[in-house]
Amino acid sequence: MASVLDSVRSHLRDTDDDHRVTTLELFFDLVFVYALTNITGLMEHDIGGETVLEGAITLAVVWFGWCAYTWLGNQAKADEGLLRVAMVVAMAGMFFVSISIPYAFGDEGNAAMVLAAAYAVVRLTHLGVYVIAAGDDTQLRSVILGMAAVASVMLVLLFIGAAVGGRSQKWWWLAAVIVDQLGVYFVRSTRWRLNSASHFAERFGLIVIIAIGESIVAVGVATSEAQLSGRDALALLCGLAIAVCLWWLYFDVVALVAENVLRQSTGVERARLARDSYVYVHFLFVGGIVFAALGMVLLIGDHGHIDAGRYALYGGIVSYLVGHLLFRLRNVGSINIGRAVTAAVVLIGIPTLGGVSALVQVLVPAVILVALVAFEVSAFREPRNEIRRRALPRSEISS
User: Fold this and answer.
1) For position 142, what pLDDT does the model report?
2) d(CA 94, CA 66)
3) Do 164 and 208 reside in the same domain of the chain?
4) Residue 225: its pLDDT value, please?
5) Same domain, 83 and 173
6) pLDDT in the model for residue 10
């Protein structure tokens, strides 16, 4: 048996600190983003508090499944040997998870059971390959086996919820998410290995930009008609401005600083930082993007759910900005006052802008975010330029 495992592992390629994201991982991300699109669709068709909770639970399920493969792809190259096969199998599982999402909480059909079964394939494939990739690292293998026990309980709760159905399903699935994440601490997640800080930071950065891009697609599809009015054009420009600002706030300097901090950390602290800053804080980023996209679809598409659209758009932006506050606090130990104030202003807009048109409700956060970006570019010009200069390759600096 040992010789068989050694033979299988010989086809895996360990990573080092220079490892970067592979094209297969990008391919995997596209399937994951399809799940994000369907989560937006799940909430769009039946607006309400319960639907929002269902969307958030489903997002948490697929998000932590995606994160699991980011850790695995940091241990061994995703496009080599057994891991290439595992990634393709996981893609198939995530694809069936994605197509099941819009109907997962419905009273008819078997979508919930399909989702649970497909997700089981995603998680168990990950754990099986991870054990092999760990090789002789006994500490890493112990934490993987511990997570296998946690994942088993989590999957049982998913299957129970799918079998029970009805209004109680969401509570079973919420319990599954809670068990999954508490398990991360109980099995001492700091024993995970993070071989390449650059790969890890790049993976999460790419999923943020892909999610932002998908939000633009969702808005465009929702408003695509033969006749484009002036109101529609202005609303679409506001939606595009919001998306651009979300990109700018993350990628202009924040992502560069965070990657540098992660790269300079080592051992247990690197694993802890990766868990806190990326696995957990980035959930707020991606969740904020998903809800902001839902809000823009409802408001720009003028679907008659103005209040729900405002709550989703403004709440999504606040989630995104709070994520930035926590991201900076965890990485450099300080708070960005401008972004904190902006989050508070946007939050105040939820109860105070109920009487204005849908167009104005999209215009206001667009103006606020553009103003925030302009302020940061002007007020922090020198440190911003220095951070970006240090991040450039030497060939680009010299040119």
Assistant:
1) 82
2) 9
3) no
4) 66
5) yes
6) 55
Neighbours of 374 (CB within 10 A): 11
What residues make up the domain containing 151? 1-195
Last residue in a domain, options 138, 164, 195 = 195
Q: How far is 316 from 212, CA to CA, in rounded Å? A: 12
Same domain, 96 and 74: yes
* Low-confidence residues in the chain, pLDDT < 50: 1-2, 394-399
209, 21 Cβ separation under 8 angstroms: no
Residue that finishes a domain, picked among 195, 217, 243: 195
Give φ, ψ of 76 to 5 degrees: -145, 155
pLDDT at 391: 64
Q: What confidence tens digit (pLDDT) does each residue in 350-372 have?
A: 999 988 888 899 999 999 999 99
Same domain assignment for residues 203 and 170: no
H or E element that contains 319? helix 306-332
> Does residue 3 sit within a domain?
yes
Determine, yes or no, domain membership for 162: yes
Name the domain count of the chain: 2
Residue in the block written with tokens 């420009």: 237
Q: Is the domain of 190 the same as that of 128?
A: yes
pTM greater than the 0.70 cutoff? yes
pLDDT of residue 188: 65
Is there a single domain that holds both residue 107 and residue 180?
yes
- Exposure class string for 32-61: b at 16+ Cβ within 10 A, else e: bbbbbbbbbebbbeebeeebbbbbbbbbbb
- Bridge partners (DSSP) listed for residue 14: 76
The pLDDT assigned to 379 comes to 83
CB 121, CB 89: distance < 8 Å: yes
Same domain, 170 and 216: no
Q: How far is residue 266's CA from residue 247's CA, in Å, rounded to a whole number?
A: 28
Give residue 395's pLDDT.
37
Token reading at 274: 């990766």
